[in-house]
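Batch job 17 of 40 flagged for manual review because the log was empty.
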Amino acid sequence: MTIIDIQPPSDVYDTFGRLNYKPWYALAEFIDNSTQNAFDHERMLRGRIGPDRPLVHVRVTHDANSITVTDDAHGMNIEEFTRAMRLNMRPPDRTGRSEFGMGLKTAACWFGRRWTLTSSRLGDPVEYSVTFDLEEFVRSRPTTLEVKVRAVPADTHGTILEIAALRNRIYGRQIEVLKKSITSMYRSDLTSGRVVIDINRERLAWAEPPLHTETLPDGSTSTWRKPMSVDVVDPHTEIVHAVHGWVGIRDVMSRKENGFALLRRGRLIIGGYDAGWRPGEIFGQVGSARWGRLTGELHCDSFPVNFSKDGFSWDSGLEEALIDALAPHVSEYRQKADNIRRGDREVTPKDLDQATREIEDRYAAGDLVRDLARMETPVPRAVDPAADAQLRSTLIQQSDGPSELRVPLPGGGHLLARLFLQSDRPGDDWMTPSFAKADEVDVFLNTAHPYVAAVSKDERSLHIVIQFALATALAEKRARYVGGETIRPDDIRMHLDTFLRHAAPV
């Protein structure tokens, strides 16, 4: 038996459950430890497994009650195990992914109230195991931990973390987001072949998005992707940071996989699935062709990172300095992304027939009759988010944007319209208007709505949906202004025609 001193007081650990983690960033703390342990001892591991196999295999399993993370990295001896269990004991080498001596404890306590860490080091015939029970810790406030020690074969190596009594579970839509986010975070490791990651027995694999390729006059092809290398000067510290990577243009627009991914020491910090770094100075308005097509990777290896490694410590002007440094290198790509157009053709009677047959079949196969019957029964009027401060705040927090436009009005003046994009509320209406003020209208376009999601897979279709949503909200706003509480059925249709007519491209 071995005793570990865990000062400061053990009740500090219980506060970690209130950290603002996302599940994928919490899980990444464990994968960081596994991969860095393997990288630090690659020569020893290669001597055992050979040159052709992956260096480390990380397996994650989870259900409603538990989370387990297992690796076959080099493992820990008693000195490393002690350091892993104590708060704020930084590793001797802080140039890798393990830097602050906090991640294991904070993430494990965030996930669950009871967890067990077990590890054995290659060449050391000893296994160490310790259990954290947070409820017992809060009650008795111990200052030491008992480590169980047992003999194992000397060629045993790796670490197992088992978390139970979960207080933050991985469930529902989070499961798919978790897989995509972890895949994006460790894209460099996965594509190198050095690291294998499984989540619930599903092997993760990273693939770059297809990029826009065009045929040149001489018949050759050119893909819109180029390397970049810039120096970024932190205006607060005057430290010069070397940033390298690439910028590209997606072949198909996306609102979840566009933007820049910002990596540090081979692991993503900002960006990834549904979280791309998209500064307005470079990407323009939300929903624009440029916003949906620009993509790339930037390796910011010397940028200071926060202790949970889900963001950079760059509030003193470093982010703005990065934007300024990138701008001249991406100007050509911004312009190209704005101007990509797909082939146009005339609409024919055959198109009309095909479209009407398709929609007729969908109406017949679905529950349209049921839903229409529901609407024949008087129901409460839809709540304007402007009348419910909490609803409005929730909608704004869960949306991207806004993008703003000013609509000229008869007699002078303007109507301010703000467009927000939602992606996490598939059960909501396709578009929710809000009339907070007499001269304003907010439009929440729900891109998770089945119809909107299905028809907005490229930039032209998305632009049409955006224009139609704006025109619909503006038509309702003007119909209310003209008709007051009494709005004729054709008022909105007439106003909608006017707004759409003037929104049509020349």
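Reviewer: the log was empty due to a logging misconfiguration, but the result itself is present. DSSP finds 16 helices and 20 strands in the chain. Unflagging and moving on to job 18.
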